[in-house]
Amino acid sequence: MALFHNYYDSASIVLFGIGLATLMLNKNLIKKIIGMNIMDTSVFLFLVSKGYIAGRNAPIITDRYEGVTAYVNPIPSALILTGIVVAVSVTAFLLALTIKLYETYGTVDLEEILKVKGDDHEVNNQSSLD
Amino acid sequence: MNDLILKNIVKFITPCIQLFGIYIILYGHISPGGGFSGGTIIASSLILQHITFGRSSVHTIFRKDRALKLIGFSLILYSLMKGYSFLSSQFHFPHPPTGVPGSLLSGGFILPLNILIGIIVSCTIYIIFTLFANE
Amino acid sequence: MKLITSLPLIEILILFISAFLMPFVRKNKNIKIVSVTALTFSFILSVVIVINVLQNGAFYFNTGYIDTILGIQLYIGPVESLLNSLFLFVIILVACFSFFTIDSEIRENRIKLFYIMVNLLSASILGVIFTNDIFNGYVFIEVAALTSCGIVVVKETQDNIKAALKYLIMSTIGSGLILMGIAFIYSFTGHLNIDLIHQAILEDYTQYQKALLITIALFTSGLGVKSAMFPLHTWLPDAHSTAPTASSALLSAIVLKPFAFFLIKIMYRMIGFDLVNQFNIITIILTLGCCGMLFGSLAAIFQKNIKRLIAYSSIAQMGYIFFGIGLGSPFGAAIAVYHMIGHAVTKSALFMCSGLMIEKTGYKTIDNYKGLGHEMPITFALFTLGAFSMIGIPIFPGFISKWYLSIECIHLNQLLLIFVVLASSLLNAVYYFPIIINGFFGIENLKNKEYHSKKVETQKLLPIAALILAMVLLGAFSKNILDFISPELH
To answer: Does A30 touch chain B (CB under 8 A)?
Structure first.
């Protein structure tokens, strides 16, 4: 029963599982990155639901201040904003690396990339990458 | 992209998007929004321009090296300002006036910090886009 | 007094601002100067902090208004101050070394990026060490993950990008787990400040035992990925062996440690010794530490590439740190911290020596290093000293941490663990001694080798020599250092 009472938590754990499974099981790098994003989103959902109190308003003072009991907890939302910024930058970095890999290997399939045995010698140091 | 309707609508809509982004940045401290959200909105208008009119239309005013310098400059200002606000209360240095809650010029450092974040984010998101847009 | 308590923040600010200044500097030479000047300033400030902590004890720094508890808080105790100044010392020397080697390893237009990354990385590492606020710690950990990935990928070879991608994906999973842990602990304590969480947990942890267990598990696995705990270490050998020499030295010596230290903070300051010992996770950490010690050394034996060999040795050495944490006693944690310091100094020196060897011989495999001790005696001698510390020859810090770990095992009545330490030491000897012996001795090996024929420039050797000297001093003054740091963890 507790599962249905805390449906935010349950949903976020399920999402986390989906994200982790996508990240681990898919060979395609782009899908892996999508899985990573789903995982991050589940954590955001989990944390932001901790600040939500049923029946209360967003902590924005429009006409008059209605006391502490009228508003939800804004701290988790503020934390999640930071988390989102971090996730955006990580995603951008990952995508940039994926593009570089695609330029050198010609595929985004991780298994095929790992099959290409990179030698220990200096690999084309002066590649045409920019 | 040689679609007449698209071009005309983008011409009309770009300033509106930018104005909306600037509004969100400026009112970030008294209403939902702020530097990051406003910055992404402005960046989205730049990306729209880039897609419809090609790279050159944005790059005439917004070169990559110049944007990087702008980001660096804003970051320095940001860290100086934020560092000052972190340190100043220890030494009882003067603080900017907080103003009347709810008015535009209130909240001390938050407004200038929001503007700086807006600049940084809009430049960064657009640069990230140019990394992936090959023509 | 107020000025001194705000020095940690000023240190971090100097490093960040210097990194943001670099885009405006044109010449690569000037960028190097800016970078190392900022690092030196921070180092001087860190020495002031150490002296202050010696005299007045630990202190807090609240950002913003003094008496608020909602703002970000920094805590600077003996351990933090010592780690801070020693890490900066190592970073400065590695940066000095990189002045002369980085040009040949990465492209010219990437040098600016490299030094921006180095300064951001050192700032974020200081943040992780100082912070007393777990969410702030998370942000700094993310910055450290991105920038450390950045200094791997500057080289831009095929292997390199592959390794960096692996590293970034793994460390993103780690950050996700850490954030989940933060969410859990926030949901039942309502605080983000480590001290306040500790109080809240002490008040009513009996209601939340399972949640607390999940939190510890999440933090352990998340930080374990980032600091290469045994089964989660798979990214490390690739990333550390393909990066430029200076990056490898930084990554292996510095970047692994703050995460392990953050784990100590979480375990022992946020949750508390008595509580942590009630959970089985501490035993799991101990077991994984043992596995890491043995597996890292075993894997290193079969490596042909010297950088991979040293990288696997890093996994083994991180095993010692987790071993110390997993003992579940204050002294164990103190030894873990001491081992962090000792390993930081030693491993950076080893990586820089191996970089010089690769540069001079042109080969990465250890088979080509036979008789090299005759050709480049000073470099090889320094390498030997570093390897001695790894193996655990007396006086060197490696020996001291192993010695105290064994003594602590006897105290805790876990005699079986001593054999693990011994076995790991022997395994260390198995892969370091052949390099040294083949380098210096053997008539076969020394044939056709001219003494001192591969001359290494003095400026490249000086940082390594300074690190080795610091290593010997750390070993010699180990008693004082342990006395300085252990009361903090009690």
So the answer is: no
